[in-house]
Design goal:
The complex is a heterodimer of chains A (535) and B (576). Chain A has 535 residues and is of the alpha+beta class. In chain A, 47% of the residues lie in helices and 19% in strands. In chain A, helix 1 packs antiparallel against helix 4. Chain B has 576 residues and is an alpha+beta fold. Chain B folds into 3 domains: 241 residues, GroEL-like equatorial domain (GROEL, domain 1, Orthogonal Bundle); 99 residues, 2-Layer Sandwich (GROEL, domain 2); 150 residues, GroEL (3-Layer(bba) Sandwich), CATH 3.50.7.10. In chain B, the strands form 6 sheets. In chain B, strands 7, 8, 10, 11, 12, 13 and 14 form a 7-stranded mixed beta sheet that branches.
Chain lengths: 535, 576
């Protein structure tokens, strides 16, 4: 089959070295792909929801990650299968776009694939299945729009936001202090949010972690935290009303970029050169001093002599500050990053109300707090925790919570969580299915079944009877025409998610459905897999 | 101390027992799943992961992490308590250097571990070491016990999430039980000091220093109290930097002493005074070998020998000027971080100045701190450089080594502890033990709440948790019950390690604690139940709290895992 003939009857090769490649075609290819996708989804299925379990991942270097964040699990899983990689991409794009629901999207895609397989077995053409899914996802997304609620909050009334963030955090290991963390996340987002334009620049929120202390010690700092200390041990540890010079040039002898040689051949030259050098250091420090700086933050290192001169002239300095941090400091303090000493002017200095150095624990760990900045829009979430894994996991959780808060500020529509939205969509899609005359009807119905699998997984993970619970909730939704009924994961005694305050953002949910459908469509369309056989 | 990789470590692999266990219970979850996939898809998923990457699911994963964690806990278990045994660690590095220790953190740090769950435990012990300094073994043992109990519960079909919520409730309850019984003698200076003494002795009693624990406890308390007196001047009184520990082999542990002042392990330059009173000290970090021109690209190019001589002369002149400037500060002692060559040394000797070269960075910083001077690198304006002062500098002999002793320094909190001992191993271990004690003490100075020791806190917590278990409805109560059993494991281990009849003792303790406000704990020396208050065995509240919270956190973390995915190990060019 990899041999074709041209018009003169000569054979030519289409697929080189065919023997050494394995090839799957037709239904086999689709089935293999589907089962790979389902296998990936199966791994994540148990991580869904507040009672979801964690996965322990060991990296090639032996480091350990413990998480139940779908995107992180898939990213570190070392997946080799092509379709598996597609699923990884899927979860990643959900992470980039929305930041939350990374597990849900994969589970949904897995369920869609499972359903598709059954249809394929009945002989329905994959493209028809894909089209049916497309129709169904449109219905579902529209339905979500209908059942969504507007969600009222303002800069002073942040309680609803906090509650939404708590829903996100409750599925993480940090749910012990989800209230505190949710508040921190919301306050951080509110601090940097532009409520007029409905935009949040998450770059302004820095999430720092340091091992030690307890999770409860996690704090929100209205300012910047730099993991550095003063360049000279005897510089003051606390500076009030600091005027900060932000430099990207080293306190070192000049290094012209063009190649040059300075030849010393007489004693006079030697002496002038020496004096120049001393003057050079003196000038550098003097220039900083002249513009009125009371703190120097530098991206580069200091020469010993320059360091002492700085200390001597009572000009505290921090060296080796990373580029990203430098930019953040510049944003926060309203200063400009200055590449040359000559260009320092008083206007380019950043201002901060308080800069202090703080020590932690018994080891000599110190960090620099820059607070009360001129531009209070940059904030830092400083995480403490028992061990490194805990901190990393908290960082991820906070990131999710920040994303949720941001999404709500962008678009304040919400749907109800705990599987309520999925069940409601499933009912709507099921009802709409009968209207389609073609084979697509089956696919649309299959989509409705797939939607059920998310609440089913939730119920399963919470130790409830999945089928029983799902059917009970479903009938309740239809009977009361109430789209807020979901799975009662926390054993709170009510199925009404409105009472439990379990929300999810509308765009997050819509995105989940759309992304999952797209990927499934893509997988279904593949009918030939050619891969090099190894060994 | 650098963590030395050692060979003694048992590599904890996926234990064989798990597979047999799961088989006996029928097919494992993963087997069923694979079969399902094979049946439904018709085609087996060939390879989802890369080669060598492994995946363990459900029961198996949980079992693997339980077993790994328990193995680690069992490993350090025997070092717990005053009668705990030591471990020898031999490094695989060059020289196969040997460390003898019973410090949990040190042991665990040097293990090569394959098991992911075990790594979590090592991590918490390390954090415990960094944060509070002591209790590194207890935290691992407690976490191990919590997991052991959890394993039993999981076997009886209780969901891990239920166990976790039970553990959380129990930990909260235990903490508040401790809080109710803490003693705080912050106001009463004398009592506080005796509290500190007791804590130091309790900490040291499990270490190699236990023979002379009174001696060392006094040393440690004195050192920390000095810090405290002046802590208002210097914020962050947990700053242990101004306590210096110098190890000198020779003599016995009893000969160790606390010196009020600062000792620098350096020699005085030739022909310079050996003793200076009312010294003015300049602490510097500057090149005193050849003072190079730092401008980039500068180099000497000459065309005749005469010019070389001239340049050399100029260089010498430059150095002479520099030395003159330094002398111009009106000093009689000069300490430099970098080398001092013979020529400037001679100049200093001529001026009658004591010059010390090549003091390490820590030494310099500490010296600057204690003498109140600043570390200088330029010497152009002598009037504004802050000089350090001390009453007396002299050369002293410890054993066979000459050291420089600075006494009567400006900052009163500085002091040096000189450790003497028969061998380097003893000294290293002594230093670790003393470090533990100092850490705990300085933490206690900050947070002066104190508890009794000898298994007393565990008994108090267990009692409170037991009561909670009885009150709690639902499956959680099993988990809470298990928590209290895990707590009891610590006194049990202490008794076991001391070769006592633990079952008998624990039963007695329980009965004793049933009464209100009992002070009963294990008296390891007589092997019976004793009053901890009378025996003077105390522990810092902060340490116990950290043990409780981090152990629970770690156990919770491991319990939540239901799947382990191990990536293919990165290939190394050469493995040792």
């Amino acid at each position: 089959m990899a041999l074709a003939f041209d018009e003169y009857g000569r054979p030519f090769i289409i697929l080189r070295e065919q023997e050494s490649k394995s090839r799957l075609r037709g239904l086999d290819a689709q089935k293999a792909n589907i089962s790979a996708g389902v296998a990936v989804a199966r791994i994540l299925r148990t991580s869904l929801g507040p009672k979801g379990m964690d996965k322990m991942l060991q990296s090639p270097d032996g480091d350990i990650t413990i998480t139940n964040d779908g995107a992180t699990i898939l990213e570190q899983m070392d997946v080799d299968n092509q379709i598996g990689k597609l699923m990884v991409e899927l979860s990643r794009s959900q992470d980039y776009e929305i930041g939350d629901g990374t597990t849900g999207v994969v589970v949904m895609a897995g369920a869609l694939l499972e359903q598709a397989e059954r249809l394929l077995e009945r002989g329905i053409h994959p493209i028809r299945v894909a089209e049916g899914y497309e129709i169904a996802s449109k219905i579902a997304v529209d339905h979500l729009q209908q059942i969504s609620h507007k969600f009222e909050f303002s800069a002073t009334h942040i309680e609803p936001l906090v509650k939404t963030c708590m829903t996100t955090l409750s599925s993480k290991i940090v749910n012990r202090c989800k209230r505190t963390l949710a508040e921190i996340a919301v306050k951080a987002v509110m601090a940097v949010a532009d409520l007029e334009r409905k935009d949040v620049n998450l770059d302004l929120i820095k999430v720092e972690g340091k091992v030690g202390g307890k999770l409860e010690d996690t704090e929100l700092i209205y300012g910047i935290l730099v993991d550095k200390d003063m360049s000279h041990p005897q510089m003051p540890k606390q500076i009030e009303d600091a005027k900060i010079a932000i430099l990207t040039c080293p306190f070192e002898p000049p290094k012209p970029k063009t190649k040059h040689k300075v030849d010393i051949d007489t004693v006079e030259k030697f002496q002038t050169l020496r004096q120049q050098e001393q003057k050079y250091f003196d000038d550098m420090v003097q220039q900083c001093k002249d513009v009125g700086a009371t703190l120097v933050i530098c991206q580069w290192g200091f020469d010993d002599e320059a360091n002492h001169l700085l200390m001597h002239r009572n000009l505290p300095a921090v060296r080796w500050v990373g580029g990203v941090e430098l930019e953040l400091i510049a944003i926060a303090t309203g200063g400009r990053i200055v590449p040359r000493f000559q260009e320092l002017t008083p206007e380019k200095l950043g201002k901060a109300g308080l800069v202090r150095e703080k020590a932690f624990g018994t080891t000599k760990d110190r960090m620099l707090y820059i607070e009360h900045c001129a531009n209070s829009r940059a904030v830092t979430v400083f995480i403490r925790g028992g061990n490194k894994m805990m901190i990393e996991e908290t960082k991820r959780s906070i990131h999710d919570a920040l994303c949720v808060a941001r999404n709500l500020i962008r678009n304040n529509s919400i749907v109800y969580g705990g599987g309520a939205a999925e069940i409601s969509c499933s009912i709507a899609v099921e009802a709409a299915a009968d209207k389609y005359p073609g084979v697509e009807q089956y696919a649309v119905r299959a989509f409705a079944d797939a939607l059920d699998s998310v609440p089913m997984a939730l119920a399963e993970n919470s130790g409830l009877q999945p089928i029983e619970t799902l059917s009970a909730v479903k009938s309740q939704q239809i009977k009361d025409n109430n789209p807020c009924c979901g799975i009662d994961c926390n054993d709170a005694g009510t199925n009404d998610m409105r009472e439990q305050n379990v929300f999810e953002t509308l765009i997050g949910k819509q995105q989940q459905l759309l992304l999952a459908t797209q990927v499934v469509k893509m997988i279904l369309k593949i009918d030939d897999v050619i891969s090099p056989t190894e060994y | 101390m650098k963590p030395t990789p050692t060979t003694c470590s048992p590599k904890i692999h996926q234990p064989q027992t798990t597979s047999t266990r799961t088989v006996s219970r029928g097919r494992t979850q993963s087997e069923i799943e694979e079969e399902w996939l094979a049946r439904s898809a018709g085609i087996q998923v060939e390879r989802l992961f890369k080669d060598e990457a492994t995946e363990e699911k459900g029961e198996r994963a949980r079992m693997a992490s339980f077993v790994g964690a328990m193995a680690i806990a069992d490993l350090v278990k025997t070092t717990l308590g005053p009668k705990g045994m030591d471990k020898i660690l031999q490094s695989t590095g060059r020289g196969h250097s040997v460390t003898v220790t019973n410090d949990g953190a040190t042991i665990l740090k040097s293990l090569h571990i394959d098991n992911p769950a075990a790594k979590v435990l090592i991590d918490i012990s390390k954090v415990q070491d960094d944060e509070v300094g002591d209790g590194t073994t207890s935290v691992v043992v407690l976490a191990g016990e919590l997991l052991r109990e959890a394993e039993k519960l999981v076997a009886t079909k209780i969901h891990p999430m239920t166990i976790i919520s039970g553990y959380r409730m129990a930990a909260d309850c235990a903490r508040s039980a401790l809080l109710e019984r803490v003693m705080d003698n912050k106001e009463d200076a004398e009592k506080f000091r005796s509290d500190l003494m007791k804590i130091a002795m309790t900490t040291l009693s499990s270490k190699i220093l236990s023979q002379d624990k009174e001696h060392f406890a006094t040393l440690a308390v004195d050192a920390v109290m000095r810090l405290k007196v002046s802590s208002s001047l210097y914020f962050g009184s947990t700053n242990l930097e101004s306590i210096q520990i110098i190890k000198k082999a020779g003599g016995s542990l009893k000969d160790s002493f606390l010196d009020e002042g600062f000792i620098l392990d350096k020699k005085i330059g030739l022909g310079q005074p050996k003793r200076i009173e009312n010294a003015n000290i300049l602490v510097a970090n500057t090149a005193m070998d050849t003072d190079k021109v730092k401008i980039y690209g500068a180099r000497v190019r000459v065309d005749s020998m005469a010019k070389v001589a001239q340049i050399e002369g100029a260089e010498k002149e430059k150095m002479r000027e520099k030395v003159q400037k330094i002398i111009g500060h009106g000093i009689n002692c000069f300490v430099n971080r970098q080398l001092i060559y013979n020529f400037p040394e001679e100049l200093f000797a001529d001026a009658g100045i004591l010059a010390i070269e090549h003091a390490d960075f820590d030494g310099i910083e500490r010296l600057a701190l204690v003498t109140g001077g600043e570390i200088a690198s330029t010497f152009d304006n002598p009037e504004s450089v802050k000089l350090g002062h001390c009453k007396l500098i002299e050369e002293i002999m410890i054993g066979e080594d000459k050291l420089i002793h600075f006494s009567g320094v400006e900052m009163g909190q500085a002091c040096t502890i000189v450790l003497r001992g028969a061998s380097f191993h003893v000294l290293d271990e002594a230093e670790r033990s003393l470090h533990d004690a100092l850490c705990v003490l300085s933490q206690t100075v900050n947070d002066s709440r104190v508890l009794l020791g000898g298994g007393w806190p565990e008994m108090v917590m267990a009692k409170a948790v037991d009561e909670l278990a009885r009150k709690t409805p639902g499956k959680k109560s099993h988990a809470i019950d298990a928590f209290s059993r895990a707590l009891l494991a610590i006194p049990t281990t202490i008794a076991d390690n001391a070769g006592l009849d633990s079952a008998e003792l624990i039963a007695q303790l329980r009965a004793e604690h049933h009464k209100e406000n009992s002070n009963a704990g294990i008296d390891v020396i007589t092997g019976s139940v004793g009053d901890m208050g009378e025996l003077g065995i105390s522990e810092a509240f902060k340490v116990k709290q950290a043990v409780l919270l981090s152990a629970t956190e770690a156990a919770e973390m491991i319990l939540r895992v239901d799947e382990i995915i191990t990536c293919a190990p990165r290939r190394r060019e050469d493995r040792m």
